[in-house]
Amino acid sequence: MTGSFKDLIVRQRAVELSLAIYKLTAAFPSTEQFGLTNQLRRASVSIASNIAEGYG
User: What is the pLDDT along the chain (56 residues), one digit of tens a residue?
Assistant: First the structure.
């Protein structure tokens, strides 16, 4: 394979989604910091991570 997993459009979109989730959840109440906020952030980061892991 040529290139890198960073060149994949789907991975780039996953990173954009993750950034959007971080911005969105920043406005959530502090009571959700270890609940829904954390879960959404970890899930969004997991998408790009799984793409990178499965690339090879």
Answer: 578 988 999 999 999 999 999 999 999 998 988 899 999 999 999 999 999 999 87
Give the span between the Cα atoms of 44 and 2, in whole angstroms: 26
Question: Which CB contacts under 8 angstroms, 24+ apart, belong to 17-22?
Answer: 17/44, 17/47, 18/44, 18/45, 18/47, 18/48
Q: Which two tokens stand for residue 5?
A: 């997993």
CA distance 39 to 33: 9
- Find, among 45, 48, 41, the residue nearest to 24 by Cα: 41
Q: What distance in Å separates the CA atoms of residue 12 and residue 24, rounded to the nearest whole number?
A: 18
Q: pTM of the full predicted structure?
A: 0.84
